[in-house]
Amino acid sequence: MTPTAFKRSLTKDQPPGDDSSVLAALWWIKKGDWERAHTIIMNSDGRDAAWVHAHLHRIEGDQPNAQYWYRQAHKPAATGAIDAEWEAIVASLLAR
C-alpha cells in the first residue's frame, strides 16, 4: 500500500488490514479517535509502536510522556508540525 492509498482509505469506516496493527492506530489518529489509537498502541510492542505512542502523546500535549516514547522508539523527538510527523511515520512504515 502507498501512503496515498492509505490516506484514501480514511473515507472508509474501518482501517485497511488488521485493526490491531500500528498502522491501524495511525489510521484512527487521523480519524480523530485518539482513545482507540491509544488502546491499540498500548497492546503493541516494538519501536514502531513506541514511535506512534510518542506521536499520540505529542497530540495530547504531554511532552514528557512523548519524550519517553521517542527514547523507546530510538527516534529523535519531533518538533515540526503534527501532521507532517504523521505523514512521515506512515511513509516510513509503508516503505517496509
Features:
96 residues, mainly alpha
Architecture overview:
It is built from six helices and no strands. 65% of the residues lie in helices and 0% in strands. With 96 residues, it is mainly alpha-helical. It is globular, with a radius of gyration of 12 Å. The mean pLDDT is 96. The chain has one domain (17-94).
What can be said about this structure in brief?
By secondary structure, this protein is mostly helical. It contains six helices and no strands.
Q: How many strands in all?
A: 0
In percent, how much strand structure appears in the residues?
under 5%
Number of helices: 6
- Helix fraction bin: 55-70%
Distance linking N and C termini: 10 Å
Number of domains: 1
**Quick one: biggest sheet?**
none
Integer-rounded radius of gyration = 12 Å
Question: Structural class of the secondary elements?
Answer: mainly alpha
Query: Low-confidence spans: pLDDT under 50, at least 5 residues?
Result: none
Succession of helices and strands: HHHHHH
How is the secondary structure organized here?
Layout: H1 3-8, H2 22-30, H3 34-42, H4 47-60, H5 63-73, H6 82-94
